[in-house]
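Ops channel
N.P.: pipeline sanity check, posting one input/output pair.
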């Protein structure tokens, strides 16, 4: 890659990272190009789709989640491990709107996202099983119950942090307390299955934001319109979903 091309690519990544962190993943792509000081055509030469750009910006997200998961699984007390794991995740998503969007949406064409989602669900499942074995988590819940509730609370974080940056700690504590063994009250309905959860969140986020319409390019559907479930759950999205066609600039 030529020096000027490398410079433009680095500028685009740095600008996208900053804008995603402040405003979320639906920032218009032409705004990213403008603030990076390059043209739309340059942006699309480096990143043909929004998902390609998102995947590159958050390439280290899997490492951050894996590190938190390994630390949790190494903790002997399963309940402390669950609390510590979700505190780490919430610290990340509260500080970065882009990461929040990333973990509360499952976009099959973002590189590696489905794998991140499934590994996260497997870690949480192992923690839930250990806590139930140790008698600290109620026995009538399943992993999807916890992931469903956590995904919804994550999604509410942007509004909560505007009121107070650490408000999420109160609500996470309340949420987890409902899963403690000593809080047991009979549940009147069975848990939701993974395939139903995908549909619920797809409908919730489908119309979140307008599509990008950069000059001289066809409209790009927004990330939210392709969401299927929060990444805090094992995404059951179709693995053969076709990515956006690159624009002709």
């Amino acid at each position: 890659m030529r020096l000027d091309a490398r410079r433009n690519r680095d500028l685009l990544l740095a600008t996208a990272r900053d804008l995603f962190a402040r405003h979320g993943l639906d920032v218009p792509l032409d705004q990213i190009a403008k603030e990076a000081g390059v043209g739309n055509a340059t942006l699309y030469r480096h990143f043909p789709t929004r998902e390609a750009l998102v995947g590159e910006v958050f390439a280290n997200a899997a490492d951050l989640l894996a590190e938190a998961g390994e630390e949790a699984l190494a903790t002997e007390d399963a309940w402390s491990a669950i609390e510590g794991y979700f505190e780490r995740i919430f610290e990340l998503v509260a500080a970065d709107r882009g990461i929040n969007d990333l973990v509360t949406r499952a976009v099959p064409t973002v590189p590696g996202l489905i794998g991140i989602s499934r590994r996260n669900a497997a870690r949480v499942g192992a923690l839930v099983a250990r806590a139930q074995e140790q008698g600290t988590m109620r026995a009538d819940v399943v992993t999807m119950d916890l992931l469903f509730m956590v995904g919804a609370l994550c999604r509410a974080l942007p509004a909560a942090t505007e009121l107070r940056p650490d408000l999420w700690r109160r609500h996470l504590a309340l949420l987890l307390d409902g899963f403690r063994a000593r809080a047991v009250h009979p549940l009147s309905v069975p848990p939701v299955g993974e395939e139903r959860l995908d549909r619920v969140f797809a409908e919730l986020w489908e119309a979140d934001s307008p599509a990008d319409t950069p000059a001289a390019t066809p409209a790009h559907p927004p990330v939210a319109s392709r969401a299927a479930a929060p990444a805090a759950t094992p995404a059951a999205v179709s693995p053969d979903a076709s990515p956006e066609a690159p624009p002709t600039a």
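N.P.: looks fine end to end. The CA atoms of residues 107 and 214 lie 21 Å apart.
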